[in-house]
Amino acid sequence: MDISNYDSDYLKFYEKRKSNSPHFELPSCELGFNSRSTVVTAFTNPYRVYLHKYGEDIHVSESILAGSANGNMFEAYTRIIMTQMLNALNIKNPVIVDIGANIGLHALYFGSLGFEVHAFEPFKKNSELLSCSISANRFYNIKLNKFGLSELENEMCMDVPQKNNHGHAVVSKSSKCENPLKFKRLDDYINSDMKGIIPDVIKIDIEGHEFKALITAKEIFKLKKPKLIFSEFYPVFMREQNVITAEYWQYLKDLGYEVFDLRGKKVTLENIDRNMDIVAIDKNYVDVVYKSSF
């Protein structure tokens, strides 16, 4: 996919970068700035991304390395759609919540635009790299939270069953847990750290745990909700996390979202029983988004 598909949309945001960007404390780079990295030069505002060691992460790290000059990186099409929809909504100072940030593929992209980004990544190997990227780029507008989001504030042991995938994990059934991951609640985070400000966009990709991460904010979102939620909707992963597919679907419908695939086709529960990426759009903005974006 060529960067020309969305470079103009990127420029629209870059040219009107907000002057009142938030100023979060930069995380420390414990790995050292000499660790493996590359500079993404495809966009107007280049930025450095720290990567997993060669051979450890073929999905994200290697795609960034290969596509840093032309934007053809992992989930490039998702960022095209996100950028187009944000332009259509004409949000002045977008606030993005990135749940399951991994090494920062989306968070750093939006950080380079000056957006306020709240990134959540509980896995140490990922968060260490993202810390270095945020610090190296002096992205004061990105706040990295080294914990995940769930229905309860607790610690859990997670298994990573797939080699070369530092994002796919399921709750461990083992009684032994040497390095438990921390989890907090989204409603608590919005009320405290975000001081009640509702994000304009949520991007969530946490391998079937999406419903458990979002459910705590339902009462908040009944009053005011994100305009867009970009989410994985993978029934196979949901079953691994003991989530009923219909529950997540009903959650989105109860809050007044219309659900589409990333090509703009409206999705129903009956035809969503397969793994796919979706965007839930506040029904009050569906016409605005699709008249301008497609």
From TrEMBL:
Start and end residues of each Methyltransferase FkbM domain: 98-258
Coiled coil: none
Domain of life of the organism encoding this protein: Eukaryota
Signal peptide coordinates: none
UniProt-listed InterPro entries: FkbM_mtfrase, SAM-dependent_MTase, SAM-dependent_MTases_sf
NCBIfam families the record matches: fkbM_fam (TIGR01444)
Protein's name according to its UniProt entry: Methyltransferase FkbM domain-containing protein
Species assigned in the record: Clydaea vesicula
